[in-house]
Amino acid sequence: MRFLILFLFFFATTQTFSQKRDYKKYDKAIKLFQKNDLEKSKNLLFKIIEKNTEWDKPFILLSNIYINENDLYASAKTLLNIYDIQKPSDYLGIDKIAKDFYKNGFYSEALYYFNIVCKLDSNYCKEKTSFYIKNCDFAISEMNDAISDPVSFNPINIGPSINSSMSEIGPAITSDNNKIVFTRRVEVNDKKPQEDFYFSEKINNEWQKAIAYPYPLNTNNNEGALSFSSDQSLIIYTACNREDGFGSCDLYYGFNNLDNLEFYNLGKSVNSKYWDSQACFSSDRKYLYFVSNRPGGYGGTDIWISEITKNGFSPAYNAGPSINTNKDEMSPFIHADNLNLYFSSNGHVGMGDYDLFLSKREGIQSKWQNPKNLGYPINDHKSQNSLIVSSDGKTAYFNSSFDGYGLDDIFYFDLPEIFKANKLNQIELEIIQSKAGEEIVFQNVLFSSNSFKLISDSLYELDLLADYIIKYNINILIEGHTDSIGNSKSNLILSKNRAQTVYNYLISKSVKSDQISFRGFGDKMPISSNNTELGRSLNRRTSFRVVD
After folding, report:
1. For residue range 265-303, what is the model confidence (pLDDT) as tens digits?
2. Which end of the chain is more exposed for a tag (fewer CB within 10 A), N or C?
3. DSSP letter string, 172-232
4. Which residue from 140, 207, 149 is spatially nearest to 416, judged by alpha carbons?
């Protein structure tokens, strides 16, 4: 009996000393973790766990180390050592395991543990877990479809003229696809990285070395989310903590003139006392789409719209429940066709954090349809954001942490057919790229010599114009011009008759008479010299202008 008592005393003492040593090791593991010496901290925890399999704290710390190493699968497997799938009180721990699998793209494992959470606590399941289950089901289906019917997705790095060893994010491209603007995170002395705007122009199909915008577009503060109007005349971007701001971040606009950069707050119709950011113009310059977390929406951040009139920006209104959810919508991009809206969301059913979506509408006055997820492999368990699409509707640009020149690079890829926007014809491109009231010359509207009879080859271009006027409800002025050969009075009559012929043809194609007007100018408004045949041929033209 004495021997047994001595043995028990010795064993208990050994256990106590062992636990003390383990606590010291655990404290040391915490300090190593805090110093970011993760490997040494892990090795120490392995030794502790080997002797203390029932002690939960080392497992939790080890799980956090795996999270810091971005190995969420290992984090989830570690937590399985301390949570009981049969124990109702452990539902939050099981939920953590499920989310670790989910965030790392292990959807089948995540779905298994999410379903266990639902068995352990039905109320929590209904409030918090059911959305994740829908996402897991969607992701598994998408990945299975990708195996049976692969989708081509081959993102290409845009190259070292634009990308650097730093991060390049938030691309925006002009409607002619020849200029790209983006945000670069640059290091300033020993301070935190600063975000500045850069741009590059395409010459002979090659992107030139990116150049930083000057002050006052770039300042000592952070600016972000820049975009252009379709004619490149206007710039809009986000700036935070400004003296003239209404909220934490406001939208500013100005004319795209490097020699005279001045920017103005959009005012209370658009900006609020909350967070307003990530704006883009519609190609007809009639609407501004942006993101805000102001009250009156459906969730955290919503997409809002402001109509642009003669009097400026109208009070913003919400894009509606087909677009916005009870969570967050970000990075709206409306394509040049005005019928395809790309954005990111973590509130619609998807594959992970933020997914990319596309909403379509039938016409300019129609409502936006329920969005479609761009699917796997474009979307995955990571966050996808800031997608823009070229005016031909074929090519998408985005930033990603794929292997490249730095942390985040800008990539481009060919959109799958189902997600392509409409390719714009020449008339549409010329209209959206023109400045307000600018003359647009018909390239293929031709008349018989000294006559106002249309040649049949002219009708195709006029048909395109008629369709555009009807679809986008615009008003135009048709103009007729001649060279200076002959009598000025006769030239004036001929130019007026040719303009009226175009007017009559458009009326015959169901364009309303109050949307179009015509005028002849004769030889009074040349655009080139009348001393050469080339110049005279340029002056003989029929053109139009978009008017209010």
Report:
1. 999 999 999 999 999 998 877 899 999 999 999 999 999
2. N
3. EE-TTS-EEEEEEEE--TTSPPEEEEEEEEEETTEEPPPEE--TTTS-SS-EEEEEE-TTS
4. 149
Distance of CA 436 to the CA centre of its chain: 26
d(CA 520, CA 55): 91
What is the rounded radius of gyration, in angstroms, for the C-alpha atoms of the chain? 31
CB 200 within 8 A of CB 179: yes
Angle between helices 56-68 and 72-79 (to 10 degrees): 170
Helices 2-34 and 38-51: angle between axes, nearest 10 degrees? 160
CA distance 68 to 41: 12
Q: What letter represents residue 24's amino acid?
A: K
Rounded Cα distance between 397 and 410, Å, is 7
Q: Which domains does the chain have, with CATH numbers?
A: 29-148 (1.25.40.10), 161-419 (2.120.10.30), 437-547 (3.30.1330.60)
Distance between CA atoms of 315 and 337, rounded to whole angstroms?
A: 24
Residue given tokens 């647009």 in the structure block: 440
Q: What is the DSSP string of 151-169?
A: PP---EE--TTT--SSEEE
Written as one letter, the residue type at 273 is K
